[in-house]
Amino acid sequence: MVKSDILNVYFTQMVASLKKKLDQKITARRKFIYEIGRIGTRMFDNQWSVGWTTVFVPYEILNSMNVSGMFVEFFGAMLSGTGMANKYFEIAEDKGYSTDSCTYHRAIIGAAMDGLIPEPSVLIGASVPCNGGVKH
Amino acid sequence: MGWVCSYTPLELIYAAKFLPYRIVGHSNPVKNAHSYIHPNYCQFVKSSIDVAIDGGYNFLEGVVFINSCDAMRRLYDVWKRFVPSKFVYLLDLPMGDSSLGYKYLRDEFYKLKIALETHTGRIIQEEALERAIMLFTKSRSLYWKLNSLRLENPPLISGKEMMDHTNEFFKSDPKMWNDNKKDLIEEKREKDLENHKPRILLSGSPIHNVEFIDFIENCGLNVIYEDLCTGSKFFDLNVPKSKDPLMSLSKAYINRPPCARMMKIEERAAYISKISQKFEIDGIIHHSLKFCDTYLYDVPHLRDLLNEEGLKVLFIESDGLESMNQLKTRIEAFTEMIKN
Fold first, then answer.
1. pLDDT truncated to tens, each residue of chain B (340 aa)?
2. Which residues of A touch B90 (CB under 8 A)?
3. Could B297 and A96 be called an inter-chain contact, meaning their C-beta atoms sit closer than 8 Å?
4. How do beta strands B62-66 and B87-91 pair?
C-alpha cells in the first residue's frame, strides 16, 4: 500500500459512514462533511485530475474541466486535526522552510514531500488572501 | 509623496510635481506598532508604523502603496485609518509571466495618474512625464557608472558608501542627486582602496539601514552588489522611449529583475548567477526579515538552484538590527568557508 492510499481509505470510509447516517436523517452538518468527503475521494478517481488550489480560486471552472480542486489550507488544518501535522512540519523544516512561515502550508509541503498526497496535475495560486498560499 | 515598493512608478509621481520619498521605518526594537498591527509582521512594516504614528512622516502629502504582500496591504490599512494623510493610494501589481500584465499595469498606472490629477487639480502633461523618465534614466545611468567602481577587484568603493548614495537618492530630488554624484566617480577613481576581502552579493528582503551593510563588511567581507529593492537592483530598470510613456513604464517595471514577490524564482536565480559572474562574486548572503513569507518560501528552492551553479550561499534571518551578535558568528564562519 502506498502512502497516499491512507487518504483514499480515509475519505472512502468517511463517505460510506456518512451516507448511512444521511439515509436515516439529513442534517446540514452531515451533508456538508459528506460533500467534502466526496471531493476528497475524487483525488483517487481516474476520471478526475487533481489541482492544488488556495481559497478564492474559482472551483466551478476547474470542475467543468474535470479537475478536482484541493484546497490545501483546508488540508493543512485536517492534518493538524488528525494529529499528524508535527511530523510534516519537521520534514518541511529539514528542507529549509522557516519556522516563521505559516503552519498550514508547512504541513502541506511536508505531507507532499512524504508522499501522503497524490501529485497534482496543476497548481493554482491566488495572490489574495495571503503570500503563503501563492508562494508554496 | 511617500512610497514603499520599488515597483512604484516614481516618474509619474515626479511628473505630478511631487518629490518621491521612500518610507524606510527604523532599525531599532519596535515600540508602538504592536498596538496597531499583529506582532507577526515584518520589522519593516512595524517600524514604519512606529515612525508614522509618532508623526515622523507628517511632512508627506500622502503615500502610494503597492499590493506587494499581505504586510504591505495591512500597512496601507493602518495608514489610511491612523496616519493623517491627504492622499493614500493602493496600486495593484500583477505577478508571474504574462504579457497580459503589461496592459493591466498600464491601466493601474493610468488610474494612479487620474488619482494624482484629481488630488492636485493639475493635469500631468505627457511632456512632463517624458522629462521625468529622462531624469530618472539619467540617475540610473549615473548609479551604474558609480557602481562600476565595484566591478574592480579590489573594489574602489565600499558597499557601505554605495548604500549611502542609494539611500540619499531615496530621499532627495533626482536633479540634485545627479548634480552631486556627477564628479564623484573621477574622485573615487583616483583613490586606491587596497583590500582583498571576499566579494559578496547580498540578496533577499529589503534592507534600509546602511549599518547592516557596514556590519557585514566589518565581518571581513566586501559587499559588491545588492540584489535588493533597496540597493543595486533598484537601479536595474530601463524605460525605452515610445509614443505611450505609460506603456513603456509598465513594460519596464514588469520586466525589471524580479523580487521574490513576482513568482519568478528561476529568473531570480539566473539573475543572481549572471551578476555573480560579472562582478566576480565569491559568495552570496541571502537575508530574510522574520515573518517575510515572500522571501522565506523561496529559500529551499533558491538554495538548490544556486548551489547547482556552484555558488556558496549563506541564509540568514533578522529583525532589523536585533540579534546581530549571533549573525556575526555565522557570517564570520561563512567568510572562513569562502577563504578556504
1. 999 999 999 999 999 999 999 999 998 889 999 999 999 999 999 999 999 999 999 999 999 999 999 999 999 999 999 999 999 999 999 987 677 899 999 999 999 999 999 999 999 999 999 999 999 999 999 999 999 999 988 899 999 999 999 999 999 999 999 999 988 887 877 766 667 899 999 999 999 989 999 999 999 999 999 999 999 999 999 999 899 999 999 999 999 999 999 888 999 999 999 999 999 999 999 999 999 989 999 999 999 999 999 999 999 998 877 778 889 999 999 999 998 7
2. none
3. no
4. parallel
**Inter-chain touch A135–B317, beta carbons under 8 Å:** no
Residue from B98, B294, B331 nearest B198 by CA = B331
Residue A110, min C-alpha distance to chain B (Å): 13
Q: What is the ipTM of this complex?
A: 0.79
C-alpha B339: how far from chain center = 29
Provide the shortest C-alpha distance from residue A65 to chain B (in Å). 22
pTM equals 0.89
The Cα B173–Cα B153 span in angstroms is: 32
| B55, B61 Cβ separation under 8 angstroms | no
**Of B70, B290, B300, Cβ closest to residue A95:** B300
Please tell me which of the candidates B261, B297, B303 has its beta carbon nearest to residue A136: B297
Contacts of A125 in chain B (CB under 8 A): 263
